[in-house]
């Protein structure tokens, strides 16, 4: 990464924070609550929803904290959303942006460390961080809004399609849930350095992200060596699973993988999915052999009419909390066509 010209003096940690926040801390919690027309407890409810700890009497807030609080408060007062919904939306935003911020900082910190170690830096990690922030902040701020609007449009289009079908509530429609994890990851991770473990997890996330989104699914969450995804139909879910096995199973730099899929009504809340298919997919994954895809009977019945996949029935098995389950393994008979 090429850095902007180095400043004539080294920036301080406070100056870096001002650059990132866009303003100085100047308000107490009482002042921003009064400025937004709220009680302190009401203001702190939004602050906690964003994922920040309670603050004392110090000047911890900027003018942008005040503007954000006023904006959310106006939505509630104008009856666009009620207070509970506003808090829920703020909480979702806090969770997603919190992870995004951590991810970006970790990535940039690694770059800065490499630059300093190789002599390509400024001789000060703080100065390098300041220069990187100066260059990246404007572009990534625009990119963040762009990506959010694109994702928003895609999610709305999916709900519009469900509404046209008219067979299920918008947020409890049938879907295929996939659960994939790396085999023997815990044992393998004990023998890896921190750097090697980080590279392995990053490679796993990058591969699963490309396969799932590229095949028409949605990543719900990743948990180190595990990824949960959904698809609107069993065929798409099976295509994703088989491609994950093909790409990761044949990658000698990654452990083997196994995937479980279950289909049925799921409840979507805060970017996650809940219901029997989610639990069953996780259980099937635990039962699957390495580099195999295991599905429930609902998914198998839908795939039987497709012709792109070969199914093999397994003996009925008892799944904890779900009773006796009829499971099938799935392999590709021919490259799946678009759903």
TrEMBL record:
Residue ranges of every copy of the Guanylate cyclase domain listed in the record: 176-285
Coiled coil: none
InterPro entries: A/G_cyclase (IPR001054), Adenylyl/Guanylyl_Cyclase_3/4 (IPR050697), Nucleotide_cyclase (IPR029787)
One MF annotation (Gene Ontology) recorded for this entry: adenylate cyclase activity
Signal peptide: none
CDD domains xref list: CHD
A GO biological process held by the record: cyclic nucleotide biosynthetic process
Entry-linked SUPFAM superfamilies: Nucleotide cyclase
Entry's family note: Belongs to the adenylyl cyclase class-3 family.
Protein name per UniProt: Adenylate/guanylate cyclase domain-containing protein
Originating species: Jiangella asiatica
Lineage of origin: Bacteria, Bacillati, Actinomycetota, Actinomycetes, Jiangellales
């Amino acid at each position: 990464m090429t850095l902007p010209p180095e400043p004539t003096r080294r920036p301080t940690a406070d100056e870096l924070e001002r650059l990132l926040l866009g303003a100085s801390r100047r308000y107490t919690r009482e002042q921003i609550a009064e400025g937004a027309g709220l009680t302190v407890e009401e203001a702190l409810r939004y602050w906690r929803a964003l994922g920040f700890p309670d603050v004392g009497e110090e000047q911890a807030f900027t003018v942008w904290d005040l503007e954000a609080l006023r904006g959310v408060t106006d939505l509630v007062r104008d009856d666009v959303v009620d207070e509970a919904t506003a808090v829920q939306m703020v909480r979702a935003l806090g969770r997603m942006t919190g992870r995004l911020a951590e991810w970006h900082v970790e990535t940039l910190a690694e770059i800065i460390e490499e630059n300093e170690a190789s002599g390509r830096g400024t001789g000060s990690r703080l100065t390098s961080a300041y220069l990187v922030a100066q260059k990246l902040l404007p572009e990534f701020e625009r990119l963040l809004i762009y990506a959010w609007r694109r994702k928003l449009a895609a999610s709305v289009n999916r709900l519009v399609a469900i509404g046209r079908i008219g067979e299920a509530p918008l947020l409890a429609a049938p879907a295929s849930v996939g659960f994939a994890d790396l085999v023997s990851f815990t044992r393998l991770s004990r023998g890896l350095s921190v750097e090697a473990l980080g590279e392995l997890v990053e490679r796993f996330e990058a591969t699963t992200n490309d396969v799932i989104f590229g095949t028409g699914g949605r990543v719900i969450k990743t948990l180190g060596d595990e990824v949960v995804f959904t698809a609107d139909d069993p065929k798409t879910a099976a295509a994703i699973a088989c491609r994950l096995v093909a790409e990761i199973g044949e990658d000698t730099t990654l452990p083997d993988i196994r995937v479980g899929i279950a289909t049925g009504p799921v409840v979507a809340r805060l970017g996650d999915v809940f219901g029997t298919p989610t639990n069953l997919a996780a259980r099937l994954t635990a039962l699957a052999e390495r580099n195999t895809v295991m599905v429930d009977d609902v998914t198998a019945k839908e795939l039987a009419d497709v012709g792109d996949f070969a199914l093999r029935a397994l003996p009925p098995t008892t799944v904890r909390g779900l009773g006796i389950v009829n499971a099938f393994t799935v392999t590709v008979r021919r490259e799946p066509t678009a759903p």
